[in-house]
Amino acid sequence: MAAKKSRGLGRGLSALMADINEPSTSEDSAPNQPRRADLSVPIENVRPNPDQPRRAFTQEALEELSDSIAEKGIIQPLIVRPDPGQDGAYQIVAGERRWRAAQMAQLHEVPVIVRDFDDTEVLEVAIIENIQRADLNPVEEAMGYRQLMDRFSHTQDRLASAMGKSRSHIANLLRLLTLPDDVQGYLRDGRLSAGHARALVGRDDASDIARRAIRDGLSVREVEKLTRRGNTGGGGGGGRGSGRGSAGGKDADTKALENDLSANLGLKVSIDHDEASGGGRLSISYGDLAQLDDVIALLNGGN
User: Fold this and answer.
1) How far apart are CA 203 and CA 299, in angstroms?
2) Half-sphere exposure of 121 (CA within 13 A, CB side)
């Protein structure tokens, strides 16, 4: 496994954020100080980024934006760079949704701000722009932060500062990625809230409790009470979970430490501490060989 190299951007993350931050996500409400475009270019000379992480664009939302653009024009210019594959053309860095809606509105030209981003910066901006979407579910937002940390060596503190979020907000979201896949699925499709899911982090019986919460319509507080008691109550796999619920008997400091390590590693971490001897065991669970390689690299100091 190749070592992950630290990358220092000349502009820095905060400067990239300033480039793509949009005062308004809708063309219906103009920002107080819309940015001035560098130029207007023929719409056929603008191309989407082939590495754009976002692939799905809701047709209804595009039609609404298209109607607004047809009436008022594009208020917030697209961020583009010169297309590395074709002279005289531009590649979208941020604003593909506006470009698609402008095509639907049959605009001939679009306003753009031109930036000389390299491939790495384009990917970074694309991830950041996706995180800023209002319709992201908590798992998708967490995956965006994890991508920024893994690909670009950003810390939670740096992300929090640049993106105007609290460190605890980012840390709590990253912890959701340590939940079992089925629980993350419930969170994605809205059957569980982020509050429900946070209460299940670090639980061996998280799937059992999640299914019961969905089945019985439990509130977040009721799920928190279940996890504090260390059992899932009657029925099904819940009884088995209660026998293994050592996580429920751990003190708050140990569970908080497990959560912090899980969030930083992106893997499930379990700490079993023996008060009598002062010793214990630290367990890190990995899902595939790539994750094992990451753990080994971390233990070897990144070499």
Assistant:
1) 25
2) 22
Confidence of residue 70 (pLDDT cuts 50, 70, 90): very high
Contact 196, 164 (CB under 8 A): no
Q: For residue 163, is it within any domain?
A: no
Q: Which is it for the CA torsion 229, 234, 238, 243, positive or negative?
A: positive
Residue bearing tokens 């965006």: 144
Identity of the residue numbered 204:
D
- 23 and 102, same domain (yes or no): yes
d(CA 256, CA 202): 9
**Mean per-residue pLDDT of the chain:** 78
Q: Is 113:77 a contact under the CB 8 Å cutoff?
A: yes
Residue 259, CA distances (Å) to 56, 92, 102, 187, 253 in order: 32, 38, 45, 18, 10
Domain that holds residue 195: 171-297
**Residues 264 and 182 reside in one and the same domain:** yes
* Cβ burial, residue 212 (10 Å; 0-12/13-18/19+): buried
Tokens (6 digits) for 60:
């209804």
Residues 155, 38: Cα–Cα separation, whole Å:
33
pTM of the model: 0.58
Catalytic residues: 96
Provide mean pLDDT across the span 241-250. Answer: 46
